[in-house]
Amino acid sequence: MAPRKLAAGNWKMNGDLAALDQLDDMAAAAEGATCDVLICPPALLIHPMMARIGASDLLVGGQDCHHADKGAHTGDIAALQLRDAGATHVILGHSERRADHGETDAMVRAKAQAAHAAGLTAIICVGETEAERDADRTLDVIATQLAGSVPDGANARNTVLAYEPVWAIGTGRTPTLDQIAQVHALMRDHLSARLSDGADVALLYGGSVKPANAAEIFAIAHVNGALVGGASLKAADFVPIITALDAA
Ligand SMILES: O=C[C@H](O)COP(=O)(O)O
């Protein structure tokens, strides 16, 4: 089995009921596509999104989950609740969660285990800061995050990895194609060494992906899709990215 291609949109803390109008064209693009297409809206929008897309091929995901399956954790969402709402995936360890909420690799690993137990695919994010890249520490940082964040129970069906350089998120800046290739090769080597089906785990790139750069990024070895922020909010931007991945 080859890695399953995935175009994933992360709406972050953006969107409202009116934004669901964007889903019609995204769902149409997902129909018959060779890649999976996923939107991770704010959790409040998961239910209305499910109602809007009906039996479409468009997948729905969460942006975070708690490591516990239930209990006294005010403001948090359990993986089982995401699953119950219709989600198939959950983003974990995004750099904004790591920075805003102090999430550590160990916390991300525990969340991934909860996601797996609930039947969700965990999209585990890793990425270096600009200071770490400037200090030539990128590969060490990524290796440490992979070792700490990816649980031993990960496999190609329940886990996707996303490389998101922190300095490329929402900035319009992207690494060179060689820099992306270098990190994705490291991720593939790490997963292949640890997991029996590590060669089949989908690896996404994220950070200022847009229609103009999608095709060249998808042509890089071991890039099996994208985790898209800003350009996933409008169908006019996200559909061309889906089309580029479909053609890759
Ligand atoms: O989760 C998505 C990433 O943080 C990328 O965001 P961006 O496409 O707005 O740079």
UniProtKB/TrEMBL annotation:
Which reaction is this enzyme known to catalyze? Answer: D-glyceraldehyde 3-phosphate = dihydroxyacetone phosphate; L-erythrulose 1-phosphate = D-erythrulose 4-phosphate
Primary localization: cytoplasm
UniProt KW Cytoplasm keyword: yes
Q: In which pathway does it act?
A: Carbohydrate biosynthesis; gluconeogenesis; Carbohydrate degradation; glycolysis; D-glyceraldehyde 3-phosphate from glycerone phosphate: step 1/1; Carbohydrate metabolism; erythritol degradation
Enzyme active site: H94, E164
The subcellular location is:
Cytoplasm
One cellular component (GO) term of this entry: cytosol
**GO molecular function: any one?**
triose-phosphate isomerase activity
Q: Which UniProt keywords apply?
A: Cytoplasm, Gluconeogenesis, Glycolysis, Isomerase
In this chain, substrate is annotated as bound at N10, W11, K12, G170, S208, G229, G230
Q: What is its EC number?
A: 5.3.1.1
The record ties this protein, via InterPro entries, to: Aldolase_TIM (IPR013785), TIM_sf (IPR035990), TrioseP_Isoase_bac/euk (IPR022896), Triosephosphate_isomerase (IPR000652), Triosephosphate_isomerase_AS (IPR020861)
Pfam families, per database record: TIM
GO terms in the biological process aspect are: gluconeogenesis; glyceraldehyde-3-phosphate biosynthetic process; glycerol catabolic process; glycolytic process
For this chain, the family text in UniProt reads: Belongs to the triosephosphate isomerase family.
Subunit details: Homodimer.
| Record NCBIfam families | tim
User: What does the function comment of this entry state?
Assistant: Involved in the gluconeogenesis. Catalyzes stereospecifically the conversion of dihydroxyacetone phosphate (DHAP) to D-glyceraldehyde-3-phosphate (G3P).
HAMAP family from the UniProt entry: TIM_B (MF_00147_B)
Q: What is this protein called?
A: Triosephosphate isomerase
Organism of this sequence: Paracoccus haeundaensis
Underlying gene: tpiA
